[in-house]
């Protein structure tokens, strides 16, 4: 029950079908070589400077978007919680608190309805965190509409509505997706959605360049969310990018720094403190004081136990969410049903929160140094507030911060235990709804709750600071769900300003990953598999050396001559799902042994990138069908090839390391006998019965 097994047994009614693979390898045809020969040394230097400028723009715009999201959520959530708080206080004295419950549920449902309607009916790809889709894009899979301007607008609007609507979600995943969309748009110097071409950055209109900038955008999103520039770079390296180089590292770090600075600068202006860049990011966990940052050697085994517990709970989260996602794919695939489910979850979240606050008798004194944003008295005595309301009657980020920093005695064990169970169930149900939402903050909140509970129970045996164990629990829970190690360690260290806990956090995350991987994969990998996307991991399956290129390749191969009749080219393209027809659209052919008037250049291909028109939209007359087209200067004369006896791991390593779209397979006489595509490699994995073959979406 703990293994997904062969996904081919899952009968999904709808699959997200990627159009094709991206091509991260340069085609060294005559046009490419001629352009490179014409470019001077100064031209290459200018291109490198332009890359830095683009990364700066990416960071600036990502930080600006993060600032807008933060202000909008703060305002909307503030108005909502203030209205509900005043209503509760009014009806606590008069009776009829059910009206307050209805008001809370209606406000939650209204916000979530707006966000879900936009996602379900306008841009479904904007649902969720967007991290699995960006991982696939950086891996080389072309996911339709994932980096379009429309997706960005719906993503930003959706996450504002989701967080303001009180769902168990966070802003960090959508920020990563938003940064990636910004990068894809800025680096191309135009908007295909708005049909506006600014005639700048034209050289970068190809898959390889766009991939590098999208990596920078994802890192800038992490940096803006957590105030962690180094963590953003490591996240992009560990969790996102499949291809990397040293120069790219510095450019990505620059984009992350600009993103964090931009966010802090504009937030300082908004809060009336220009120049005081104190807020580290969207998710401000606060700084730990000097008394709570120490740990002892005897606590190391306790941290390992917490890591193992986080791995088990994370695996349980992923397993439940896996089956819930299958149920949604089968039965809740209509947009209207998806919106209704999102509204139901919003109403249930408000109801559960209200009920737990109502029945809680955990009252704490309201001191002068109290930092609660919306302290709720309810049935507590004067000068006291309901402690359960601190966890539920707040945005998730503020709740995490209170669990980290509130003094000992703020929460009793029963409150934390009940909250952990309830919020765990709500978070599992929420992730996968048709709304823009992240899983980082809900995971941290669940872990902080049971981590603080662990610290309180431990204090009966030895002295223990609950806030310290809340941080360790948060790391363990998030690591158990997403299985990140190095990047998450640095993100938490930067977000809390606490270098001392670097080693314990890394230890906890490694333990959580090892334990969680025993049961099921990380949450993002689970959703990638559920979408039947041909994602290529770092290495081929370890037991696949007996498979050869001949056995995995696609054949027979459709071939063209160097000089081919236009009619045959049109017929071949019409019978396949390809869209390589720039030559035909430009009517570049040899008619009566005379060349066409204008010679094509790489600029023509870049102008058409990335949305090439379908062959059906190009009219070719009968006379033009008889023309001959010379493909010599457009073809790649030196493609990568492998003998048909090459083992699968060697083919896999070559294909993935070079970012190929296809790999030519030749026989002993160097004749083309097949092509290895991404789908051919991704369908093999190691299962319970050894090497298994998956059925993936057609690409």
From TrEMBL:
<feature type="transmembrane region" description="Helical">
    <location>
        <begin position="439"/>
        <end position="463"/>
    </location>
</feature>
<keyword id="KW-0812">Transmembrane</keyword>
<dbReference type="GO" id="GO:0062158">
    <property type="term" value="F:chloride:proton antiporter activity"/>
</dbReference>
<dbReference type="Pfam" id="PF00571">
    <property type="entry name" value="CBS"/>
</dbReference>
<feature type="transmembrane region" description="Helical">
    <location>
        <begin position="336"/>
        <end position="359"/>
    </location>
</feature>
<feature type="transmembrane region" description="Helical">
    <location>
        <begin position="300"/>
        <end position="324"/>
    </location>
</feature>
<dbReference type="GO" id="GO:0005765">
    <property type="term" value="C:lysosomal membrane"/>
</dbReference>
<keyword id="KW-0406">Ion transport</keyword>
<keyword id="KW-0677">Repeat</keyword>
<dbReference type="InterPro" id="IPR002249">
    <property type="entry name" value="CIC-7"/>
</dbReference>
<feature type="transmembrane region" description="Helical">
    <location>
        <begin position="248"/>
        <end position="270"/>
    </location>
</feature>
<keyword id="KW-0813">Transport</keyword>
<feature type="transmembrane region" description="Helical">
    <location>
        <begin position="101"/>
        <end position="122"/>
    </location>
</feature>
<keyword id="KW-1133">Transmembrane helix</keyword>
<keyword id="KW-0129">CBS domain</keyword>
<feature type="transmembrane region" description="Helical">
    <location>
        <begin position="49"/>
        <end position="73"/>
    </location>
</feature>
<dbReference type="InterPro" id="IPR001807">
    <property type="entry name" value="ClC"/>
</dbReference>
<dbReference type="GO" id="GO:0005254">
    <property type="term" value="F:chloride channel activity"/>
</dbReference>
<feature type="transmembrane region" description="Helical">
    <location>
        <begin position="469"/>
        <end position="493"/>
    </location>
</feature>
<feature type="transmembrane region" description="Helical">
    <location>
        <begin position="500"/>
        <end position="520"/>
    </location>
</feature>
<protein>
    <recommendedName>
        <fullName>Chloride channel protein</fullName>
    </recommendedName>
</protein>
<feature type="transmembrane region" description="Helical">
    <location>
        <begin position="411"/>
        <end position="432"/>
    </location>
</feature>
<feature type="domain" description="CBS">
    <location>
        <begin position="635"/>
        <end position="693"/>
    </location>
</feature>
<dbReference type="InterPro" id="IPR000644">
    <property type="entry name" value="CBS_dom"/>
</dbReference>
<comment type="similarity">
    <text>Belongs to the chloride channel (TC 2.A.49) family.</text>
</comment>
<dbReference type="InterPro" id="IPR014743">
    <property type="entry name" value="Cl-channel_core"/>
</dbReference>
<dbReference type="InterPro" id="IPR051280">
    <property type="entry name" value="Cl-channel/antiporter"/>
</dbReference>
<feature type="transmembrane region" description="Helical">
    <location>
        <begin position="152"/>
        <end position="170"/>
    </location>
</feature>
<keyword id="KW-0472">Membrane</keyword>
<keyword id="KW-0868">Chloride</keyword>
<feature type="transmembrane region" description="Helical">
    <location>
        <begin position="213"/>
        <end position="236"/>
    </location>
</feature>
<dbReference type="Pfam" id="PF00654">
    <property type="entry name" value="Voltage_CLC"/>
</dbReference>
<dbReference type="InterPro" id="IPR046342">
    <property type="entry name" value="CBS_dom_sf"/>
</dbReference>
């Amino acid at each position: 029950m703990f293994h997904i097994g062969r996904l081919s047994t899952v009968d999904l009614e709808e699959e997200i079908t990627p159009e094709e693979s991206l091509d991260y390898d340069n085609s060294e045809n005559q046009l490419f070589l001629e352009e490179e020969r014409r470019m001077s040394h100064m031209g290459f230097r200018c291109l490198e400077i332009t890359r830095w400028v683009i990364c700066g723009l990416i960071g600036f715009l990502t930080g600006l978007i993060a600032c807008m999201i933060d202000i909008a959520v703060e305002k909307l959530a503030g108005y909502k919680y203030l209205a509900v708080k005043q209503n509760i206080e009014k009806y606590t004295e008069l009776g009829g608190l059910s009206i307050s419950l209805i008001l809370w549920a209606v406000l939650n449902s209204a916000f979530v309805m707006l966000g879900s309607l936009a996602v379900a009916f306008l841009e479904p790809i904007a649902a969720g965190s967007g991290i699995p889709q960006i991982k696939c894009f950086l891996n080389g899979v072309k996911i339709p509409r994932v980096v379009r301007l429309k997706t960005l607008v719906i993503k930003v609007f959706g996450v504002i509505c989701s967080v303001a609507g009180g769902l168990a979600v966070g802003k960090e995943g959508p920020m990563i997706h938003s940064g990636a969309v910004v990068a894809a748009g800025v680096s191309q110097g135009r908007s295909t959605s708005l049909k506006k071409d600014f005639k700048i950055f034209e050289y970068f209109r190809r898959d390889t360049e766009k991939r590098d900038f999208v990596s920078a955008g994802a890192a800038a999103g992490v940096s803006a969310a957590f105030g962690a520039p180094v963590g953003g770079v490591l996240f992009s390296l560990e969790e996102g990018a499949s291809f990397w180089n040293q120069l790219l590292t510095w450019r990505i770090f620059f984009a992350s720094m600009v993103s964090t600075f931009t966010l802090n600068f504009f937030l300082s202006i908004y809060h009336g403190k220009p120049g005081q860049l104190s807020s580290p990011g969207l998710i401000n966990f606060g700084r730990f004081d000097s008394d709570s940052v120490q740990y002892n050697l005897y606590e190391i085994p306790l941290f390992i136990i917490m890591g193992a517990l986080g791995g088990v709970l994370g695996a349980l989260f992923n397993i439940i969410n896996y089956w819930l996602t299958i149920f949604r794919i089968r039965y809740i695939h209509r947009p209207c049903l998806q919106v209704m489910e999102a509204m139901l979850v919003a109403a249930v979240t408000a109801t559960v929160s209200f009920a737990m606050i109502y029945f809680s008798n955990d009252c704490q004194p309201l001191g002068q140094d109290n930092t609660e944003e919306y302290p709720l008295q309810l049935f507590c005595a004067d000068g006291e507030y309901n402690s359960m309301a601190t966890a539920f009657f707040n945005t998730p980020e503020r709740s995490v911060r209170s669990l980290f920093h509130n003094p000992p005695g703020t929460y009793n064990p029963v409150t934390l235990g009940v909250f952990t169970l309830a919020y765990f169930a709500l978070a599992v149900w929420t992730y996968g709804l048709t709304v823009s939402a992240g899983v980082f903050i809900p995971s941290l909140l669940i872990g902080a709750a049971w981590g603080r509970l662990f610290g309180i129970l431990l204090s009966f045996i030895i002295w223990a600071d609950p806030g310290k164990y809340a941080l360790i629990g948060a790391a363990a829970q998030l690591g158990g769900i997403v299985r990140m190690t190095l990047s998450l360690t640095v993100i938490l260290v930067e977000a809390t300003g606490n270098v001392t806990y670097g080693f314990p956090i890394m230890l906890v995350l490694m333990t959580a990953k090892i334990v969680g991987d025993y049961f099921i994969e990380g949450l993002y990998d689970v959703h990638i598999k559920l979408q039947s996307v041909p994602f290529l991991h770092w290495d081929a399956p370890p037991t696949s050396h007996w498979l050869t290129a001949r056995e995995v390749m696609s054949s027979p191969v459709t071939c063209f001559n160097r000089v081919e009749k236009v009619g045959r080219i049109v017929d071949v393209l019409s019978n396949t799902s390809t869209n390589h027809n720039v030559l035909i659209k430009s009517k570049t052919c040899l008619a009566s042994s005379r060349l066409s008037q204008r010679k094509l250049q790489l600029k023509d291909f870049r102008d058409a990138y990335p949305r090439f028109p379908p062959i059906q939209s190009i009219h070719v007359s009968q006379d033009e069908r008889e023309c001959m087209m010379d493909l010599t200067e457009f073809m790649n004369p030196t493609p990568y090839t492998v003998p048909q006896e090459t083992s699968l791991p060697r083919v896999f390593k070559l294909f993935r390391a070079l970012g190929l779209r296809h790999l030519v397979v030749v026989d002993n006489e160097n004749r083309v006998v097949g092509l290895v595509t991404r789908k051919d490699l991704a369908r093999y994995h190691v299962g319970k019965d050894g090497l298994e073959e998956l059925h993936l979406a057609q690409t």
